[in-house]
Amino acid sequence: MTPSSQGEIPGSGIGRIIDLGARLPFSGSPDETDFGDALHAIFAAEFLNPDHPQRREAVQRILRGHKLEDCLRSEDVIAMADRFRGQMQTHFQPKRVLVEVPLEATNALGQRIEGFIDLLLETDDGWVLVDHKSFPGKRADWAAKARSYSGQLALYHEALAKLNMPVASLWIHFAIGGGLIEIRPHGNA
C-alpha cells in the first residue's frame, strides 16, 4: 500500500492550525511536481544543516535543478524555511528530527505499507509527523484539502504504530500558503 495514493477518510477531523506567516511568493505557472520536489529537497537540507554557510547557494542550486529559478527568489524560500523550522521548535521542542524517512511495515491484514515520511519530530509526547504539500490554494480551502490527505496520514500512523513509534500528532504543511493543519483521521475525538 502506498500512503500517498490513499483517499480521504470520511469523518476525518481538523485539529490545531499553526500560522507560519506570509505566503511564499512565486511568479509564473511552475510545474507542480517540480515545485513540490524542490520544496521537499530544500526542507530536508534546511533541517539537516540549518546553519550551512552556503545556504543561499544550495537553495539556488535546488531551484535551478528543478527549473524554478525564474519563479522563486532564494531569499523568500530561506525566509519561509526559517519560519517553518522556528515554529517546529517552538511548538514541538523536538529531541530529534528525521527527514525523508523511508517507511516499510506490514499491517494487520498482511498488506505491505511502503513510503517516505517528509518530516518526523521525536518529542516527549511521541512522534510528530509532518507531510509537506505544495498546494497553492487559499486558506479558506486548507481544511478540505488537508482532510483529503487523511488516508495517507492514517496509513503512516498505522505503520509507525507497528514499529512501536507512538504518534503524538499528524500534520499537513502547506508550504506555499504558510500554515500547518493537524489532521485527525478518525474524527475530532
SSE blueprint:
Blueprint: E1 13-19, H1 32-48, H2 55-65, H3 74-92, E2 96-106, E3 112-123, E4 126-133, H4 142-147, H5 150-162, E5 167-174, E6 179-184
Parallel strand pairs: 4-5
Antiparallel strand pairs: 1-6, 2-3, 3-4, 5-6
Protein architecture, described:
The chain is of the alpha+beta class and 189 residues long. The chain has a single domain (3-184), classed as Alpha-Beta Complex (Lambda Exonuclease, Chain A). The chain has five helices and six strands. The chain has helices at residues 32-48, 55-65, 74-92, 142-147, 150-162, and strands spanning 13-19, 96-106, 112-123, 126-133, 167-174, 179-184. The protein has a six-stranded mixed sheet with strand order 1-6-5-4-3-2, sandwiched between helices. A hairpin with a 2-residue loop joins strand 3 and strand 4. Helix 1 runs antiparallel to helix 2 and helix 1 (32-48) crosses helix 3 (74-92). The radius of gyration is 16 Å and the shape is globular. The two termini are 26 Å apart. 37% of the residues are buried.
Name the structural class. Answer: alpha+beta
Query: N-to-C terminal Cα separation, in Å?
Result: 26 Å
| Strand order across the largest sheet | 1-6-5-4-3-2
What gross morphology would you assign? Answer: globular
As a percent range, the share of strand residues is 25-35%
CATH class: Alpha Beta
**Strand segment tally:** 6
Q: Give the total of domains.
A: 1
The CATH architecture assignment turns out to be Alpha-Beta Complex
The rounded Rg comes to 16 Å
Unreliable sequence segments: none
**Helix content percent band:** 25-40%
CATH topology term: Lambda Exonuclease, Chain A
Helical stretch tally: 5
Arithmetic mean of pLDDT: 91
* Biggest sheet descriptor: 6 strands, mixed
H/E element string? Answer: EHHHEEEHHEE
